[in-house]
């Protein structure tokens, strides 16, 4: 997942990764 951040622009990839990880983090208890 993070390997794609290398060749591709960090802006677009970071946003996509964050959007995909966000729901997972929100569903998981923050403790």
How are the SSEs ordered, and which strands pair?
Layout: H1 10-27
Number of strands: 0
The radius of gyration computed from the alpha-carbon positions, rounded to a whole number of angstroms, is: 11 Å
Number of helices: 1
By secondary-structure content and strand pairing, the structural class works out as: mainly alpha
Distance between the termini: 25 Å
Global geometry: rod-shaped
Low-confidence stretches: none
Helix content: 55-70%
Largest sheet, strands/sense/barrel: none
**Strand-residue fraction?**
under 5%
Mean pLDDT: 63
Order of helices and strands: H
Task: Quickly list its features.
1 helix
Question: Can you offer a commentary on this structure?
Answer:
The chain is mainly alpha-helical. The chain contains 1 helix and no strands. 58% of the residues lie in helices and 0% in strands. The chain is rod-shaped and about 30 Å long.
What can be said about this structure in brief?
The protein is mainly α and 31 residues long. It has one helix and no strands. The termini are far apart.
